[in-house]
Every structure is written in C-alpha cells, then in structure tokens.
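Handout, page 2. Input:
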Amino acid sequence: MAEEEESQQQQPNSDELVSKTAQEESTQNQQQEADYSWTPPSICFDVPPVRTYHFSHQFRTSSNPNNFLKGIKWSPDGWCFLTSAEDNTFRVFSLPDNVDGYYGNACSFAADADSYNANLIVNGGESIYDFCWYPYMSASDPVTCVFASTTRDHPIHLWDATSGELRCTYRAFDAMDEITAAFSVGFNPAGTKIFGGYNKSLRIFDVHRPGREFKQHSTVQGNKEGQPGIISAIAFCPSHTKMLATGSYSQTTAIYSEDNMELLYILRGQEGGVTHVQFSKDGNYLYTGGRKDPYILCWDIRKADGIVYKLYRSSENTNQRITFDLDPSGQHLGTGGQDGLVHIYNLQTGQWASSFQAALDTVNGFSFHPFLPLAASSSGHRRFDTLDDSPEDFSLSGDENCASVWSFSVASMEDNSATMDCGDLKSQSEN
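Output:
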C-alpha cells in the first residue's frame, strides 16, 4: 500500500499535464512570433550613405540625347525598383541576390559603365504622368507582379512587371465620348480599386473589371466648397481609417473617406500646385509638396487646423514633380531637389538631420527600400539646346540624368534593439 501511494504521488494528474503542455505551447508560440517579428532597421543618417549601384548610360541614346529620368519607386516586396523617363519608357531593375543591404562596397561616382542592365523595358506610348505598384506585389507570385501607369492620351494601363505584357486597361471617357487620360493613379490599400485623378474629378475602377466601367466623383459640387483643378496626386492612409488624400494643381489638398467619398478637409497653404502627397506610417500626419514651392508641409489630419512644420528643399524654380519618401521606421523623410542634394529630416521634431550629394542635377525621385537600409534616387531635368549647339556639345557626365542605389549605415546589424553610438560609426568610416 505504501508503494502504491508513493507511485501515485510521483505520477502527475491529467490537469497538470494539460497545463504544462499549454505553457510549453504558449512559450513556443511566443518564440516563433519573436523569430518572425520584424523591426525596421535603425538607420544612422549622420553617416553618409554609400552609392552601391549606379545607372546612367542606358538612359541615353543617340536618337534622344535629352532623355532624363522622371521618377523612381521600390516595389512593395523590395525585389526591384521601377523608373520612368522622358523617352516614355519604364525600366525594372531587380536587386542582385548578393546584396546584403548594409554598408557595402561603393561603386564609382561616375562609372564608365552601368552596374547592370534593366531586367525589363516597357514602352508607355506617350509622356508618362504617373505610375504605382500593386500594393501586394510579390516576386514569388507572378500574378501580383504588376504596376499601373497613366500616360498622355492613353487610358490607365496595368503592366506585367516580369514579361512587360499589357494585362488590361481601364478607360475613362469625356463628354464627347473620347478617351481622357488620368493625371495621377493609385491603388486603394486593399488592392481592389484603382483611383484615377482627372480634371475636377476622380474616377474609380474595379481592378477585376477592366474596361470602361467606373464610378465618377466630382471634386467640385456646384458652387459649394470643393477641390477644383487637375487632381495631380493620390495617396491612401496606411492605417485602417479608409481615408485618402488628393493633391490638386489649384494648390489645395483634400482628404476624403474612401467608403462614401465624403469630403472631410480641404488643406490650403501650398505655394504651388500640389504634386505629391504621402501619409505618415501611423496615418496621423500628411506630407504635401508642390511645384515651384520650396517647402514640404506637414499636416495633423486629426485636427487639420494649420501647418505643423515646413521642410525645406530646393524646388522653387522648377515645375517638375519632385517626390519624397519616409524611411521604414517612419521617423525620417528624404527628399531631393534642384541642388542635387538629398535632405533627411527628423519627423519627430521637423528638424534637418543630414544631407548628401546624390547627383549634379535635379534629384526628382527618392524612395526608401521597404525593409532594408537602402534607398534609390533618380535625377535629371529638361535641357534646352540652341540652334548652334552640336550633338558633341550636348554631353552629360555620369552623375547627371542617372539612377542610384544607396546603402545606409545601421546602428546595429545584429540586434536592432541594441543601440550604438552613430558618432563611433562615423569615426570608423572616416578612418
């Protein structure tokens, strides 16, 4: 009897086993979540970035020596970036497999040859107005590898980013039943709708129903308050508020509710026509920039009663669309300008953080990689030659009309949660 009692005391009951198993499973799940959790890289912006890849020669041809880049955007999965140029072409550049995304080897500032050739060249047909990636684009799923574009006198096109084939078109017609081109284009966060910006109106297309079926929303309702002019920029709030912002050449920015297209705010204060709008990562702030306007404006959309702060860039003398972007952590903003510099600003304080020389002409596009400490820049502007100029006189250096990929230093490459003194990194790079 004593031995049986002792044996029963040594054997745990079923409730204890279940509790122990549940604890082990909980610990294992927490460990798996920790393994799969992603922390944005802690980029050290006071250390100058390194130019990792450079492209210029393939944008220049004897038939069009005045060709120049107009914009650049990373794909949502970070596999490649897309450029647009004055020669009406899109080029897709995939990131090499051996890139580590960190402070790597520098390439020549004005190399004799490009780092590598574009994987794909797509002819847009006419002058390119705007383009955007499908928000759920993934190189592992070819069906999602698409981008939308809008060009002069053409409908909105959906292109295959791997083959260059035209997947489908979304056509809008004016009162004369003629095709009218959108001036801006954007996918909603769910990836189910395409929004096109037109003169005093927005047209909304169902992604799965190409053709001429669309919903039209006028941005001006009779004599009521509204947003006149050409809708030149579209951005969607990344949070689940279902808000979108539209910029207009009338120097205004409007914020709508996506569900019923109710007008929530009209923001005024831009000195030039609005050419780019972008929400903060948390969706509480909106950043707007305009042509011939030296300031990017920050708005708090929770109250929208005034400008929070202004970020300077050299763009007061150009009508070009100069785009900016937020880093993966959402704490810094990078923008180019006519001076060839990329300025980095701390969004917590609105103060200038650093700058670096990206080109010797206008940096019209700047885009952060979605999760690596990389960025891509595009540069160029229209050059007007006289009748006396010969083709030999119209020559550009390697750091004009070019695209580049930049590698930033990170505070800690092994553990982003650990902090590192950026000054030490800077002294090491100088040595």
